[in-house]
Structure formats: structure tokens, C-alpha cells
Amino acid sequence: MLKFRSIQFKLFVTYSILITAIVAIAAISFYYYVSDILSKRDSESIFQSTTYISTQLDSLIQNIDNAAVKVIFSDDIKQLFFEEDNPVDPTISSYNVRKMNDYIFSIMGPIQLDWQINLFDMNGRFFGTGNNSVSKLYPGGKMNNITWVKDTLAADGAKVISPPHSDDWDSSGKTVISLARVFSWALGGKQQGILEIQQSYSVMANLIGKLMAEPNGGASVNKSIYIYNQAGKLIYPYSNQPNAYPEFYWKQLQRENMATGTSTINNPLNKQREIMAYTHSNYTDWIVVAVESENVLLQPVETFRNSMFIAVFGLLLVTLIVSFFVARGLTLPIKEMHKSIRALRVDTLLPSSQIESNTSLNELDILNTSFKRMCIRLQDSIEEVIQSRSQEMQARMVALQSQMNPHFLYNTITLISIMAEEKEDHDIVKVCKHLSKMLRYILSNHARNVTMSDEVAYAASYLTLMQIRYGEKLRFQIDVDPSMMEVAVPILIIQPIVENCMKYGIHVAPPWKIELTGRTDGEKWTIHIRDYGGGFTPEALQALSQPKLNLYAQESQGKGLGLKNIAERLQLLYGEEAIFEASNHPEGGAWIVIGGLIRQSDQDSKPSEEELAG
């Protein structure tokens, strides 16, 4: 199995991520690049479609309007239609009907089969020719109730194009589009009648269908066409049923101010993104709108993208399998070398104990050879370092213990004690007794460690001497767990700290208090020493918070057994497990914590009765 931190795993993951990222970036970039191109081209295409449809519809309406103008300005037709101002028989005679048909045919040529030309006045007289020839009288007021008739009268001679509607003069319900103009007997005279030319709606629908047909002849299923007049009335596709789509697109046109152009919209009706192109005709005042779904447009690109992803996934799988075995071939010799390194001991550093490399990779052979040579050099270096460090540590321990070795003081103190006993000065006798114990402890010259009980007793003797000197001004308390009294510790690690408390902790109003507390916690022991003085200065705390001391750094001699000396000796004995912390107690005063692993003392480390007796 692959380990997460192994070279094989990292090579495998790196190649996987790299290949996947390259493929993903390429596919996504290609998709968006092609999509953008297709969207722009499709926008141009459907815009051209709307322009073309608008042009064709303008041409269709213009032909109708040209015919209307010719009829309106024909004096012969006006003379026949307005032959009598108030005729007894308002219908046109059959003779006049034939003559009007002749005039219309002579002006326009043969009338198109899908046109219907109607002339009528407000009195109800009506004449129609084209698909149906009609001459009749409608009831009074009918003309005034038709909406597009009112619009035509209001236009005062301008053309009026009505939206699709049922033929108002035919009961068959045929859907038509009308173009109407008013005309009179004389130019500029009173409006006396209306000319209407009807175009079958199916003609316009068929025309749009042909314009939107696909190259194969089928109807376009991707694009939708909508045509509106200026008032928002739907011209195409005509339906009597309400439809939400035309209303939605009309609102979009109003947001775009119905200007000619293209836009991309989000359609909430079908939840799709759509491309909408629109063209406004100044001639008909119609707006032609073409809409195409962007999803349908990009479907081939998405299909190609998905196919490419599938193909690349297969290629990626093959590549990853190959990279797996390549990485395995590279890391197998390294794993063997790793096993050899883990099996290294001081007594197994010789090259004969190493596994021979059987790889065909020259770089790994070089690495294995270098490793063997390193083992030889390491063997020699370890022997030299062990010898030199052993001698150096022994010399430092002896030097640390020998810094206070004035042996002549012991004899002098003994003489003073005898003289004090003769004078019956008991305080001096007590001082000499404790001082003598302290000197014997120091002069015992232990090569190794002492017990915690000896260190505590030595510190107690020192505090007793200080109490004799200062009397009731000094108070001290010693509370050490009896279970740690036999723990082996370096000599002189407690008394120097207590002495430091006496040196700096008495610069406050008496009584001066010193507390010494010892406790065990599992495999470790700790001694807490606290005074109630002014505490450490920031500079002193910063100096004591520096990184652990370099055991082999060259330092000048004669600095005394200070806090730095104690920290160094604890580190010599306990290494990384040594405890030395200096801080200011929250309630005031300096606070020092020392400690280390619990190690029972041996007989060689404990001073003999003869040594203590002097």
C-alpha cells in the first residue's frame, strides 16, 4: 500500500495532479473559447435572420401600400365610387362594379390571388374586389365600431397596418392583415372614405417559415421568431391563446428600448440562457425578434467536451498506472536502504553489515557507495567524539565542584568552635557547626551525584546560618516530599539559588521569607524556590529565557556557581529532560523551578561517614 509521505506516493500524486490539471485547463479553455466564438457567430447569424425577415416583410407591406396609393390617386375610381353624394341606391351598380374592376386591373395589373381590396365610406356603402367581389350597404354605425377604422381616420391619410385579425367583412373568420388609408373626392378635401387592402395572414406565415427553413428544407427547431408592432401587439405567431413567452420577450425589448441589436438573457420560463436578436423596421414599425437557446447551440461542443474528457480519463488512467510502476521501481532500492539505515547501531556501522545494492540505476549505486563511506567516517568520528566528550565532561564536573576548595578554612573554623565553647558562646558554636557541615559537604569531592536529602540538608544549613545572622527578620520554610530524598541529583543545585534569594530578596521591608518545596510527578522531580522580594528584572528574565546552553561552549572561568551554572549542570545530567524555569511569581518575588528525571543514587555518589566527619 502507498504511504502518504513516501516518495512513491508523492510521485504518483504529483503526476496525477499535473496531468489532471493540464487536461482540465485545456478542456475548459477549449470549451469556453469555442463557446464564445459560437455565441458571437450565432448572435450575428440570428441578427442577420431578423434583418432579412424584416426586409422581406417591409417589401411585402410596401407592395400592398404602393397598390393602395395607386388606387387612392385614381380619379376614375374616385369618380365611380363618389358618383353621387347622397344616392338613392347607395350600392354601386353592376355596370360601375365592372368598370371599377377594369380600372383597378388597368392600374395594378392582375390582382394577386391573396389580396382583397375594399373601399367604403362612413355611410355604409362598401365595394370589394379580389378574392371576393362585393357591393353592398352595411348598417349605419358599423364602420365606426371597428378599431382599425378609427385608427385610420385618426392617421389622416397615413398608412395604418392592423395586426392579424378576423376579416370584418367575411363571416368565414379568415385571418388577415390590413393596410388602410383614407381618401377623399379631391386632394385635401373632406375625408369621405377608406381604402383597405387585406393580405392573408397565411402568406406572411409561409414567408417567415421559408426564410427560417434549414438547408435540408426542414423547419428550424432551434430558433423562435416573434414579431411585434409598436404597441406590443403580437403580429407573429398569431394565436388567440395567451402565451407567457411573447410577453417575456416584449418586456426584454422594453428594457433594451426596442433598439436594433443582440443580447444574452436568462429565461426563467425554461431555465435556459438564450441569445436574442431584434430588428426594428422604420417602415412598418414592426420589431422582429429571433431567440435561440444557448444550451442547444453549445450542445455539440458539450458533447465533444464530454467525449474528450472520457478519452483523456482513459489516457490518464494508463499514464497513472505507468507512473505508479515507474515510481515503484525508483523507490524500492531507497526503501531497502532505509531499512538498512534504521538497523544502524554503533556496533553495526561497518560496510559489511550493509545490504548490497542490486539496482540498475547508476545514481542509486552512487548513493549506496556514499552511504557506506559515510558509515566508515561516522564510526571513526563517534569514537573520537565519545573519548573527547567523556574527558571534557569529567573535567567540567571536577572543575565545577572544585571552585570552592579552600581546605584551610575547615581547620580554622574548628579552632574558632573550640574557642567559642570555652567562652560558652553558643551562637558561635552553632554557626561553626553548620559552616563545618557545609565545608565537609563541598570538600567531599564527589566524582558523581549526591542525594536530594544531602542537597536539602546543605541548603538548610545555609539558611540556618543566615537566620542566626538576621534573627527574626528572616523566615524560611522547607517542604520536600520524603519519597524524593534518595533521588540522585548534581551537587550544589539548591543552595546557590537560595543564596541568590538572600542576595536579591532582602531589599524589601522584613520579615523576608523563602520557601523551598519539592514534589514528584510520575517519572520527574521538581524543586520550587521562591522569595518575596522585588523579583527578576526584565533583562535578567530575558537572559535566563535564552535557548538551552551549549554544553561544550568555551566560557571564561571564575563566574561562580550562579543560575547559569546550575542550568548547565542539569542539562549535562538530564539532557532534554532537564527543567530550569525562572519567572516572577504572580503574587510577587522571584520564582525558580528546577527538576529532572528520577534517578536513584548509588553508593559511589554518596559521601562516606569518614568524609563527612573530616
Automatic annotation (TrEMBL):
Keywords: ATP-binding, Cell membrane, Kinase, Membrane, Nucleotide-binding, Phosphoprotein, Transferase, Transmembrane, Transmembrane helix, Two-component regulatory system. GO terms for molecular function: kinase activity. It is found in: Cell membrane. The chain crosses the membrane at residues 12-34, 308-330. Residues 493-593 form the Histidine kinase/HSP90-like ATPase domain. It comes from the Bacteria. Its main location: membrane. It is a multi-pass membrane protein. Residues 395-474 form the Signal transduction histidine kinase internal region domain. It holds the Pfam family HATPase_c. PANTHER family: SENSOR HISTIDINE KINASE YPDA, SENSOR PROTEIN KINASE HPTS. This is Histidine kinase.
